[in-house]
Specification:
This protein is 36% helix and 16% strand. It is an alpha+beta fold. The protein has a domain at 4-54: 3-Layer(aba) Sandwich (YefM-like fold). The chain has a three-stranded mixed β-sheet with strand order 1-2-3. The two termini are 27 Å apart.
Length: 77
């Protein structure tokens, strides 16, 4: 079951947030009254990637080898 963590609490208690995510699944992190992000176990993330991204689709890659289409950074402000 997803638990909701305020951003400051998530930073302060990151180890607990990580362990809770691994044991219970996705954990939601909020900013001032707004859902900002979700921490999910890596296997959950990989399964979502397989479901949402066809294998035949070619992806452009960054110099570091990370698929550019897989993640777009956003400001946390």
């Amino acid at each position: 079951m997803s638990e909701v963590w305020q951003a400051q609490e998530a930073m302060t208690r990151f180890s607990e947030l990580l362990e809770t995510s691994l044991a219970e699944g996705p954990q939601i992190v909020t900013g001032p009254g707004v859902e900002k992000s979700v921490l999910v176990p890596i296997e959950h993330w990989r399964r979502l990637q397989r479901i949402t991204r066809p294998k035949a689709r070619s992806r452009e890659r960054s110099p570091g080898g990370v698929a550019l289409s897989a993640w777009e950074p956003h400001s946390l402000q």
